[in-house]
Amino acid sequence: MSNRLLSLLILVLVFGGLYGLYYYFFVASTASVSLIISGSGTTSVTLTSEFKNSYVRECDRNCVFGDIPAVNYTLSAKREGYTSVEKAFKLGRGEQKKMVITLEKEVTLTEQTRKKEETIAAIKLGREVQEVLESNTG
């Protein structure tokens, strides 16, 4: 073989190997997550990787995070009037994960401000007014 052909073969092998390393570590090691979010309204979704990289999206019903590294993630979903949801999961190489996120309404309990006697008096007054209205109409 001539020296030119041999040097061309070596260059092809070197560049092919570099491309193979690039493909293995950067292209093939990505994944995607598809989220289906219950209810209507805009939901703020944050994906945080184990390396503290964050991906933030505002989603209505469906949300897709594509071509992200295949590592461990923490998902946080927030919507006004609903409790926040946090889930941890792991993405594999080339995986296309589908997840359903169910948000629950936030319930706030408040302390009763009126005394028991005042509440009973208000209920009795309401009944008396109702009886008077029923007896005078008819």
Counting H and I runs of at least 4 residues, what is the number of helices? 2
CATH topology label of the domain at 29-101: Immunoglobulin-like
Shape: rod-shaped
Radius of gyration using CA atoms only: 31 Å
Keywords:
single chain, 138 residues, alpha+beta, Immunoglobulin-like, four-stranded antiparallel β-sheet, three-stranded mixed β-sheet
Structure description:
The protein is α+β, with helices and mostly antiparallel strands. It has a domain at 29-101: Immunoglobulins (Immunoglobulin-like), CATH 2.60.40. 33% of the residues lie in helices and 35% in strands. The chain has two helices and seven strands, in the order H-E-E-E-E-E-E-E-H. It has helices at 3-27, 116-136; strands at 30-37, 43-49, 54-59, 62-69, 72-78, 85-90, 96-101. The strands form two sheets. A four-stranded antiparallel sheet has the order 3-2-5-6, with no helix packed on it.
